[in-house]
Every structure is written in structure tokens, then in C-alpha cells.
Design goal:
- The chain has 350 residues and is of the alpha/beta class.
- The chain is 41% helix and 15% strand.
- It has two domains: 160 residues, Response regulator (Rossmann fold); 154 residues, Response regulator (Rossmann fold, 3-Layer(aba) Sandwich).
- The strands form four sheets. It has a six-stranded parallel beta sheet, sandwiched between helices. Strands 7-6-8-9 form a four-stranded parallel beta sheet, covered by helices on one side. A two-stranded antiparallel sheet has the order 10-14.
- Strand 1, helix 3 and strand 2 form a beta-alpha-beta unit.
- Helix 3 crosses helix 12, helix 6 runs parallel beside helix 7 and helix 9 packs parallel to helix 10.
- The radius of gyration is 21 Å and the shape is elongated.
- The chain binds beta-D-glucopyranose.
- Beta-D-glucopyranose binds next to loops.
Length: 350
């Protein structure tokens, strides 16, 4: 089966049987920010997918500002939304506004990021976020040839924002792979900063990660070489690579470390093609948006969207029925097939 069909085939559904009934029903889309490219694509693809089913769509971006996101959701409730698709900034901060929405019978779908500490959530659709972390760490293990007995190597760990449940899953998945190498001293972390509260990056801001990278280099790498960086997000990876170059890496005798990433952003694919960033994770946001549009349709029709019960998530208040899509590791050897042949990135953009 071709890669394209593997990704799309399993999530493609027959067109809705009640397109006419949905016409003029309003769906609210709450997106977190426009600063990470994927959310623009997610919002656009969600809007297209929902409009194709006959829904009217209202879409907002909240500039990574939690209070603004709450206000936007309230506006969509007041404007008569019958369902909300929410990619939260702080997944635990929306309980009150979700309660108001649920009291009106509005269906609530958590999109990509889990909504936590609330019973007012009908469904969660995302990628297998633990597996994202596993793939990121495995890419480092492979690039350093640790599974063939290399090491010890110096690694530093970066995490995402602590109020995004995904960031904890990425970190947990990565640590599940790295732990045995840490225990056998094949990987060393000279800063000794391993836990989420030590390595997190508020709001995923790459400037914060860059400051931390520079500080780590100054404090722990005067007499050592850094061999690898676990980076959770492409924007952070590019910032870290730039700061490493400014600190003398990327020259003969001092190669750039192995650096992971996520989101298959164009600058990172260029960097991978140029032999700098080592890997990224492709999460097909087109498939996620299509899946979300189907789920909204099913919820409004009073049907339970198809999901695997073993994948349900505990959101700290209840178990939430969940559908997870597969992430794919991208390196220099497969970016053409995975991203360009699937039409996710145009060759001309690289
Ligand atoms: C998403 C990532 C994204 C990050 C920063 C996470 O919740 O799963 O794809 O890179 O947020 O926006």
C-alpha cells in the first residue's frame, strides 16, 4: 500500500448521509496561535472539511492568550454554535466556559490537545503523542548508533509548554526510549535537567529555548562537546541550531549535534536536506482535520464516533473517547517520499 493511502485510507470515511440536515448549523473553531504554521493549516482544513458537510463555520485564533481564547469561545457560544472544535492554549483552563457551552447542549471536541479537568468534553481527536516522543528519541538513538554499542554521548533535553498535555506525553514517550541508555551511562545529561518541570518551554516559545540552550552551553560545555538535543518542535530546533552555530558548532572538528524536531515545517525540512537538523515528525494535519469534521458530524447526528476503547484518555475528570492518528518519523532519507510525494509540502517551497 502506498504511503499516501496508508495515511489517508484508514481515516477516509464515506461522505455524511445527512449533509442537508447540517446546512446552516454553526460550528465554532478555537485555534491557539498563528505563530506555528500547522495551526493555520489545521484551521483552514477544518473549515473546508466542515463547510463541505454543509456547516457554517466561525474560526478564531487566540494569539496564545488564554483569556482571549475563553472570550472567543464565549462569543461562538453566543453566536449559536452547536459544536465547538477546540485546540486549547491551556487545556486545564477552560472548564467554566465549557460548562456554559455544555449547558446549552453544545458538543465539544478537543482537537490535537486534550481538554483536562472537565467533564464537558464529548470526544478527543489527536495523534499518538506518546509515540511522537518515542520516535523523536529513537531518531537520536539511531543517529548516534547507540543501538550498535556507541557512547557515551552528551545530550540535553527540551520539552514543550507544561499546560499542554501533549508536551507531557512527548516527554514521557522520549524518556521511555532514553531511560535504558541513561541508566547504562551511554547517554549523559551534563546539566542533570531531565524532568518536565526543568526542561519545559513556556508556550513553546523558541526564544526561551534558545536562552536555555546558551545558558546550558556556558555552564556545562566549556570543556565538553554536545552530541544530541532532544527538541520537541521544529521552531525550537531551528533556534537551537542557530544558537549552536553562533557558539562555534557546525565547523570542522566540532560538528552540529543530532537534533530532533516535530511538525515537518518547511525551514526544518530544508535544514534536514542540508544535513543540519536530523529529524522531524510528520503529523498529517489534513487527515486530522478530516477526521475532526467527521466526528463533529457524527456527534451532532447522535452517533458515537468510531474509536478504539483502548485509546481513551483520562482527562483527570473522566475517560474521554479518543481517536489517534499515527505520527511518522522524517529524516533525510524519506522526506521526499513522505512529504513531497504526499503533497504535504511542494518541492518548490524547499
Ligand atoms: C502540537 C504540536 C505543536 C505544538 C506547538 C502541540 O500541542 O501537538 O504539533 O508543534 O503544540 O504549537
Amino acid at each position: 500500500m502506498s504511503f499516501f493511502r496508508q495515511i489517508f485510507g484508514q481515516h477516509q470515511r464515506k461522505p455524511s448521509s445527512h449533509v442537508r440536515a447540517s446546512s446552516s448549523l454553526r460550528i465554532g473553531i478555537a485555534m491557539p496561535t498563528t505563530t506555528v504554521r500547522r495551526w493555520l493549516d489545521d484551521g483552514h482544513n477544518l473549515e473546508k472539511g466542515l463547510q463541505a458537510k454543509g456547516f457554517v463555520v466561525e474560526r478564531h485564533y487566540a494569539g496564545d492568550d488564554v483569556l482571549q481564547q475563553i472570550a472567543q469561545i464565549r462569543t461562538m457560544v453566543a453566536n449559536g454554535a452547536v459544536a465547538l472544535v477546540i485546540a486549547a492554549i491551556d487545556g486545564g483552563a477552560l472548564h467554566s466556559v465549557l460548562e456554559e457551552a455544555a449547558a446549552k447542549g453544545i458538543k465539544i471536541l478537543a482537537y490535537d490537545r486534550l481538554l483536562t479537568h472537565t467533564p464537558h468534553l464529548d470526544f478527543y481527536v489527536s495523534f499518538d503523542n506518546f509515540q511522537v516522543g518515542v520516535l523523536q528519541a529513537e531518531s537520536i538513538v539511531q543517529a548516534l548508533k547507540l543501538n550498535q554499542g556507541g557512547g557515551p554521548y552528551n545530550l540535553e533535553i527540551f520539552g514543550g509548554t507544561p499546560d499542554d498535555n501533549n508536551a507531557h506525553l512527548f516527554h514521557a514517550g522520549a524518556m521511555s526510549v532514553l531511560r535504558p541508555y541513561l541508566e547504562h551511562h551511554k547517554i549523559l545529561v551534563p546539566s542533570n535537567e531531565l524532568e518536565m518541570q526543568q526542561v519545559s518551554t513556556m508556550r513553546w516559545y523558541s526564544t526561551l529555548a534558545v536562552s536555555r540552550m546558551i545558558s546550558l552551553l556556558n555552564r556545562h560545555y566549556q570543556d565538553r562537546r554536545l552530541h544530541a538535543v532532544l527538541s520537541p518542535l521544529d521552531g525550537i530546533s531551528i533556534g537551537i541550531l542557530d544558537s549552536l552555530k553562533a557558539m562555534g558548532y557546525g565547523k570542522p572538528g566540532r560538528p552540529l549535534p543530532v537534533v530532533s524536531g516535530q511538525d515537518a515545517e518547511v525551514p526544518s525540512i530544508r535544514s534536514i536536506a542540508a544535513g543540519e537538523q536530523s529529524s522531524t515528525i510528520f503529523k498529517d494535519t489534513r487527515a486530522l482535520a478530516l477526521s475532526a469534521a467527521d466526528i463533529v458530524d457524527e456527534l451532532l447526528a447522535g452517533r458515537a464516533p468510531v474509536h478504539d476503547p483502548t485509546q481513551s484518555y483520562d482527562n483527570k475528570t473522566k475517560r474521554v473517547p479518543t481517536r489517534l492518528l499515527p505520527p511518522v518519523l522524517v529524516t533525510a532519507s524519506n522526506y521526499h517520499e513522505v512529504l513531497i510525494e504526499s503533497g504535504y509540502i511542494m518541492a518548490a517551497d524547499l
